[in-house]
Design goal:
Order of helices and strands: HEEEEEHEH
Distance between the termini: 12 Å
Radius of gyration: 15 Å
CATH architecture: 3-Layer(aba) Sandwich
Number of domains: 1
Shape: globular
CATH class: Alpha Beta
Largest sheet: 5 strands, mixed, barrel
Helix content: 10-25%
CATH superfamily: Nucleoside phosphorylase domain
Number of helices: 3
Structural class: alpha/beta
Strand order of the largest sheet: 1-5-4-2-6
């Protein structure tokens, strides 16, 4: 059963470079434009104890955490859902310091930066799979993906 036959589902890949390349390609192919709503859905690690594994959140602020401070920039978007709103650090590898962010991921800053430049609406939905710095064997990937899928279905029913 297709929940939303008009939705164009694309797997961007892991990391900011893959996400930027995929979004740029979609824009060049005119599959997204300034009227589009682009939803990036994926997993995140939590810096804080208030978010539990399996929680689903909406990221409304992003920054590339591993850049030198003089090059760091925060990107913000308007909330789109009623989910808990959080700030996130986009990282390339093992965690950065929180710097006020509640979660970290590997793609979000690319989405927000391109949305700002190209003019489309960016929405970032994340399910918490782990705590930042935790060994991968303790991550709850399957449970987080199920929670994420359940939340996404709510927007298409």
């Amino acid at each position: 059963m297709e929940l939303c036959p008009d939705a164009d589902v694309v797997i961007s890949g892991v990391g900011m470079a893959a996400t930027a390349a995929t979004l740029s390609k979609l824009y060049a192919e005119k599959r997204i434009d300034n009227e589009s709503v682009v939803i990036l859905a994926g997993l995140a690690g939590s810096y804080i104890g208030g978010l539990e594994k399996g929680d689903v959140v909406e990221v409304v602020e992003e920054q590339c955490a591993e850049l030198p401070e003089r090059f760091q920039r925060r990107y913000s978007v308007e909330p789109y859902t009623n989910l808990c709103r959080v700030r996130s650090n986009s990282v390339h590898g093992k965690g950065a310091e929180s710097s006020g962010a509640e979660v970290e991921n590997m793609e979000g800053a690319a989405l927000f930066a391109l949305a700002e430049v190209l003019g489309f609406r960016a929405v970032e939905i994340r399910a918490i799979s782990n705590y930042v710095g935790e060994e991968f064997s303790h991550w709850m990937v399957y449970d987080a993906l199920n929670a994420l899928a359940d939340e996404l279905v709510n927007y298409y029913e």
